[in-house]
Amino acid sequence: MLDFIRDGHTAQTGRVRHHLGNVVVTTTDAATAEVGAYLLQTRNTGESIQIVSTGVYTFGLRRSDGRWRIAELTLTLDNALQSEARQCARRTPDACRRGPGIDCRR
């Protein structure tokens, strides 16, 4: 996971931001919840601001020791990014599913 993040930061030009909107929190019980949010990813190069991608984040939350923690994070992109590594849409300790129709469980 760290290599994935480092590679992404190395390849970036300009300042990239993930803007989340229309956030909806649904509690499933006292210890779990699901959060959905729209993503608008932008890049500011200093000369222009570009839309990089759009999509939907889904966070599975779990309450432990009185604190909410992200147990699972799914990102479904509306468009494919340039490299296959950046298309990874789901990271859990057990599996990774890339974009629609691409399965990369490891």
Describe the structure.
This protein is mainly beta. Helix content is 9%, strand content 60%. The chain has one helix and seven strands; from the N terminus they run αβββββββ. The protein has one helix at 2-11; strands at 15-29, 32-44, 49-64, 67-77, 88-91, 96-98, 102-103. The termini are close together. 3% of the residues are buried. Residues 82-106 have low confidence and may be disordered.
Radius of gyration: 15 Å
The level of helicity is under 10%
Shape call: elongated
> N- to C-terminal separation?
12 Å
How many individual β-strands?
7
Low-confidence parts: 82-106
Class based on secondary structure composition and strand pairing: mainly beta
What's the helix-strand series?
Answer: HEEEEEEE
Strand order of the largest sheet: 1-2-3-4-5-6-7
Provide tags for this entry.
106 residues; elongated; 1 helix; disordered C terminus; single chain; seven-stranded antiparallel β-sheet
Entry summary:
The protein is mostly beta strands. It is built from one helix and seven strands.
